[in-house]
Design brief:
Distance between the termini: 39 Å
Strand order of the largest sheet: 2-3-4-5-6
Strand content: 35-45%
Helix content: under 10%
Shape: globular
Order of helices and strands: HHEEEEEEEEEEHEEEEHEEEEEEEEEEE
Number of strands: 25
Length: 381
């Protein structure tokens, strides 16, 4: 079965089979982790503000609204989604106290219990931006397409910067999976880059750039060369993008990879039939990759300059409680465990204190309270 989204339903099956309850999962913490905040509703991406406040994207609780196949295309196999405006953005003060900044954002739950909502948040020039995944007609939210939003830090109101559901129509992916096709997308990672925002859409396998004025352009169609591998997260360092992928379920450990995407790859003597316009060779291209990862859902560069990668679950099969972890790539190129024993984590960031903050239980069974863990990072070997 090729399910490519964040599979809380698969975790439910594991939980039932193993007798592990949501309460037990909450109690099983890694040795180097403490609970910084709890009571989250599907926590995903994280971002710290200048004053040390942590902002959390939350998927929400789905809803009850169904759309008709006559109204719009439905998602195959796992549809129809039930939509509602239950997603939100929370803020957590330096004491770990949670309050709601923004509410009424699009959330959707499929027939298997997977929830989509606000996927990620990021700061640029002091402004907070968010990307949604639960919007659009195929997710039961006809009046609220998936979008890039700018959020007011004072009152939580927002304005739409760009309609991302429409972007998938304007820039169709080269390769999509007919049995796992999301018309409105399942947008996930979001970063700030040179005055614009860059976001990745896992289901179609594309990376897009959005200006603060709302102009959308495709950076790269990962599916064109890699097929349906479900890219989820990205970072940028020195003008180079690094893109990590979830890969397909059932999980095959160590088959996910981090791809290096760069400009300026000029092919001097292309084969016959491959000699497009010269300027086309200066677009973004995948120039290398590093394998050995499993179910990548987030990536960050640490204070030590190393790449840290969050893995949803590194066990074969389907997501397993306690099999999530953070790894890092050492200067020798080795992949080293930083923290293990996480329960379907979905997002992470480094705090002003140099510690790692992780959204734990972000893809747990619907209704299981999510938490933010604060992790003391051991020195690299």
């Amino acid at each position: 079965m090729k399910r490519t989204k964040f599979a809380s339903s698969f975790l439910c099956a594991v939980v039932v089979a193993s007798g592990v309850s949501g309460v037990q999962m909450l109690a099983q913490l890694p040795a180097n982790a403490t609970v910084y905040a709890s009571g989250l509703e599907g926590p995903r991406g994280l971002a710290f503000g200048r004053d040390g406040t942590l902002y959390v994207a939350e998927a929400g609780l789905g809803g009850t609204v169904l759309t008709s196949p006559k109204t719009c295309m439905q998602v195959p196999n796992i549809g129809p989604y039930k939509g509602g405006l239950t997603a939100r953005i929370s803020k957590i003060d330096t004491n770990g106290t949670r309050t709601t900044l923004s509410r009424g954002l699009p959330s959707a739950v499929d027939v298997m219990g997977d929830v989509l909502g606000v996927a990620d948040v990021v700061f640029q020039n002091g402004n907070l931006y968010a990307v949604t995944a639960g919007g659009g007609c195929s997710h039961g939210n006809t009046a609220f397409p998936n979008a890039l939003l700018q959020v007011d830090l004072k009152d939580g109101s927002w304005k739409t910067v760009a309609n991302l559901s429409r972007a998938l129509v304007e820039f169709p992916a080269k390769i999509t999976s007919p049995d796992d096709f999301e018309p409105d997308g399942t947008w996930y990672g979001l970063i700030s880059s040179n005055g614009s925002l860059i976001t990745v859409e896992p289901n179609h396998g594309q990376v897009f750039s959005v200006t603060t004025g709302g102009r959308v352009s495709q950076v790269i169609d990962v599916s064109a060369s890699q097929g349906h591998i479900v890219p989820t997260s990205l970072i940028e360092e020195q003008g180079v993008l690094y893109v990590g992928n979830l890969n397909l379920f059932p999980i095959d450990p160590q088959w996910a990879k981090v791809m290096t995407v760069a400009r300026g790859v000029l092919i001097q003597n292309p084969l016959p039939g491959f000699n497009g316009p010269i300027d086309s060779f200066f677009n973004w291209n995948i120039v290398s990759s590093k394998a050995g990862f499993t179910t990548i859902v987030s990536m960050k560069v640490g204070p030590d300059g190393l790449l840290y990668v969050l893995e949803l679950s590194d066990a074969a099969g389907f997501p397993t409680p306690g099999a999530g972890k953070v790894v890092r790539v050492t200067r020798s190129g080795a992949i080293q465990n930083v923290v293990t024993g996480l329960a379907v984590p979905t997002g992470m960031t480094f705090g002003p204190d140099g510690r790692l903050y992780v959204s734990n239980l972000g893809a747990a069974p619907q209704g299981t309270p999510g938490q933010i863990l604060r992790i003391d990072v051991p020195s690299a070997w």
